[in-house]
Design goal:
alpha/beta; three-stranded parallel sheet; 3 strands
C-alpha cells in the first residue's frame, strides 16, 4: 500500500510517518510538504534513508506537481464510492474513541 502524507514535515505529520513506517514496514510512505513555517525537513532525518519512504517538496495546491507525483509512483485515485466507504470506516473508528462527558449546568 502507498500512503501520501501531506504536511508530513510538521510535528503531527512526522510522528504519523514514524508510526506508519514502524507499524507497517511493507507500506510505502510518501511525504508531500511545501516546507513552510510549520515544516522542517530535519524532523524526517531518521527516515530519509529508508527504501519505503520518499519526500517530495511541493505544494498540495500545485496540480502539476501532484499529477507528476501520481505518474511517477503509478498511483490511482479511489473512486467516489471507495472514498465514501473509507470515510464511513474512519468515522466508525473515530466514534469508537469518542467518549462524551456529562455536563451539568450550575444554577
Amino acid at each position: 500500500m502507498v500512503i501520501i502524507v501531506t504536511g508530513g514535515a510538521g510535528f503531527i505529520g512526522s510522528n504519523f510517518i514514524f508510526h506508519m513506517l514502524d507499524t507497517y514496514p511493507d507500506y510505502r510512505i510518501i511525504c508531500l510538504d511545501k516546507l513552510t513555517y510549520a515544516g522542517n525537513l530535519s524532523t524526517l532525518a531518521p527516515v530519509m534513508d529508508k527504501p519505503n519512504f520518499r519526500f517530495v517538496k511541493a505544494d498540495i495546491c500545485d496540480r502539476e506537481a501532484v499529477y507528476k507525483l501520481f505518474e511517477e509512483e503509478n498511483l490511482i485515485l479511489w473512486s467516489i464510492s471507495q472514498r465514501k466507504a473509507m470515510l464511513t470506516v474512519l468515522l466508525k473508528i473515530r466514534a469508537s474513541f469518542y467518549r462524551p462527558t456529562l455536563s451539568v449546568p450550575v444554577f
